[in-house]
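In response to the reviewer comment on reproducibility (Comment 2.3), we provide here a single inverse folding case reported in full, input and output, so that an independent group could reproduce the run without further information from us. The structure tokens appear first.
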């Protein structure tokens, strides 16, 4: 007698980081949504560079992580709803602001999900980083005719280049990788500069701006040298926008320079979930309208079982890499 084994539908798979550079996949019972929550059968999750310091195992990191933890760029299909959920139902496709998305399922509050319209069917949509780009752009207050330098041309830097260029700004893109500079040019950058020598870059920007320097400089790396460089490239009474996530230790700044030039220093990081969601909704609208083109930036895809490889690639950034996605269901 032939027996067909049916796949279990009451369990989920989730990644657990067990130590520096080590991950295992666990099978767990499906979580149940509480009131005003939904459960999402995730299609995938973007890999964020903010994961890299925890992945390296700093002293403050505690292992093992909670199942699915570190993943916060998920999207998928609602497959269960709790009580008092309004405006969403089973089967809706959404981008989620949830925090255990390195898993096949996650729980999100109904205020932390955004519906994905039919125009995005079949397309990956890691809402959180796309929303971050819009929130940073808003905080940067870029106006037509301004000169904007963007230091660090990864996924975020390319999106900001596209947004700033579309707003009528002249964008100078600065990156250490030639493939990133090519991506910046495709996104609308007027000039690109290889990030190799500190003083050469400063002199080049002076040359490009007839000595005026930049109205706005966005630092999107999260390291000491790019922060130093950003201050040097910002004109008197200009705006220095810190978009990089400086999570690996204290920073020193040239306060004399910042004081003398009277810089407006903007830490463009949000912690209010409502602001996060506003950015995600804006990103969805802009993508549907064709004003944002993120799909070409998803350069590498991995199954959940290869999350470690996805994190390593995000760390090492080989030529041509922009962003990795971990894919569960399509």
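Designed residues, in position order:
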């Amino acid at each position: 007698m032939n027996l067909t084994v049916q796949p279990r539908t009451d369990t989920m798979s989730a990644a657990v980081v067990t130590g520096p550079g080590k991950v295992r996949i666990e099978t767990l019972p499906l979580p149940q949504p509480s009131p005003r929550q939904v459960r999402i059968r995730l299609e995938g999750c973007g890999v964020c560079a903010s994961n890299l310091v925890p992945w390296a195992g700093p002293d403050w990191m505690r292992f093992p992580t909670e199942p699915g933890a570190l993943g916060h760029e998920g999207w998928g299909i609602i497959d269960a709803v709790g009580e008092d959920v309004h405006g969403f139902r089973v089967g809706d496709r959404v981008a989620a602001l949830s925090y255990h998305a390195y898993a096949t399922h996650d729980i999100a509050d109904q205020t932390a999900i955004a519906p994905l319209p039919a125009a995005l069917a079949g397309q990956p949509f890691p809402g959180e980083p796309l929303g971050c780009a819009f929130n940073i752009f808003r905080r940067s207050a870029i106006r037509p005719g301004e000169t904007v330098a963007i230091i660090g041309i990864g996924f975020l830097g390319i999106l900001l280049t596209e947004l700033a260029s579309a707003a009528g700004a002249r964008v100078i893109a600065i990156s250490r990788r030639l493939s990133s500079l090519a991506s910046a040019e495709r996104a609308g950058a007027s000039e690109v500069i290889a990030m190799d020598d500190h003083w050469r870059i400063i002199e080049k920007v002076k040359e490009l701006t007839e000595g005026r320097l930049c109205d706005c400089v966005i630092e999107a790396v999260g390291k000491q040298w790019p922060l130093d460089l950003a201050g040097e490239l910002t004109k008197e009474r200009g705006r220095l926008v810190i978009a990089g996530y400086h999570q690996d230790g204290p920073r020193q700044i040239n306060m004399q320079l910042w004081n003398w030039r009277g810089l407006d220093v903007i830490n463009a990081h949000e912690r209010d979930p409502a602001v996060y969601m506003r950015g995600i909704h804006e990103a969805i609208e802009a993508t549907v309208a064709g004003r944002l083109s993120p799909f070409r930036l998803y350069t590498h895809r991995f199954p959940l079982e290869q999350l470690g490889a996805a994190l390593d690639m995000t760390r090492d950034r080989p030529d041509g890499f922009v962003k990795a996605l971990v894919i569960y269901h399509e």
